Amino acid sequence: MTRIIHGAATPRSPAPRTIADLDLRRTGIALAAVTAAVSGVSVFVNGYGVGRFDDPTTYTTAKNLVAAAIIGAIVLARRGRAHRGPSGPAPRASSTRERLLLAVIAVIGGSVPFVLFFQGFARVSSSDAAFIHKTLIVWVAVLGTVVLRERLSPPHVVAVAVIVAGYASVAGGVGLPSPGHGELLLLAATLCWSVEVVLSRSLLRHGVPPMTVSAWRMVGGVVLLVGWALARGAAGDLVTLSVAQWGFALLTGTFLTAYVVSWHHALAGAPAIDVTAVLASGAVLTSLLDGGFRGVPIDPFGSVLLLAGGVVVAVAVLGPRRVVVT
């Protein structure tokens, strides 16, 4: 027997089955909004940071070292408190499959796409980089539906369509010439991150702690980045960085830490499609900052569309409670 509380529901409703599930999803959406704000500022600041380095890969390795150190320190501190505190449930053990997927995340989330992204980022404006990254919603919508079996509800379809239209507007329309080398690198990085999102969501909804995913992504990823620097004979560049360069690495690495931690906690609470749709609004903040500080023209129509895409999903999730009890 099925009854409805806190509002009406139809057989096609994608509503969570309990109030606890709905509250968790709302928390995920709220954290996604925090991630979007961090992303919007971070991409803008990275536009200045990458210009201070001769090699974009050295830059991303330096800032990822900072993020890995912060996240690693947090995880170690938590483990230390757990060992000193009263005995409780034993820590959840990771299976071989989970460890393998976490290692894949370190490769396609914490290392390879960063090299691709910042090589491309050095060739285009920060607004273009932000908007290309926000096409993540398209790839996550496809992969989330196929791999995670997440349902594309009408608000999701509207959000994806609005975000794509917003990107087309800010990019100058759909009839554009072939993208340049920088744009292709950014797109390749975005595709890597879309696969990472789906893998992360799969692990998180099966009980892997968000900080574990964050640690594998950043610590494992930076090990690979440093290994790549050694292989190409560029490890010495990290040692000879100036104080100003390490200052930018510290600043942007701190932003990256906030982004990764809030992002994985958001994915632990809400479906990948929901979280990614809200994240798209971060590009609007980057555009506003670029316009205010760099004089880059702002496309109001496209910006409104990108913001509206996230709002559509947020309103659908944060609206009146609709819970099915069986």
H/E topology pattern: EHHHHHHHHHHHHHHE
Main β sheet profile = 2 strands, antiparallel
Radius of gyration of CA atoms, rounded to a whole number? 20 Å
Low-confidence stretches: 1-14, 322-326
- Estimate what percentage of residues fall within beta strands: under 5%
Helical residue percent band: over 70%
State the shape: globular
Q: Looking across the biggest beta sheet, what order are the strands in?
A: 1-2
**Count of helix runs:** 14
Average of pLDDT: 84
| N- to C-terminal distance | 6 Å
Features of this protein?
14 helices; single chain; mainly alpha; 326 residues; two-stranded antiparallel ribbon
Descriptive account of the structure:
- The chain is mainly α.
- The protein has one domain.
- Helix content is 73%, strand content 2%.
- It contains 14 helices and 2 strands.
- It has a two-stranded antiparallel ribbon with strand order 1-2.
- Helix 5 packs across helix 8.
- The longest helix is centred in the first third of the chain and has 31 residues.
- It is globular and about 55 Å long.
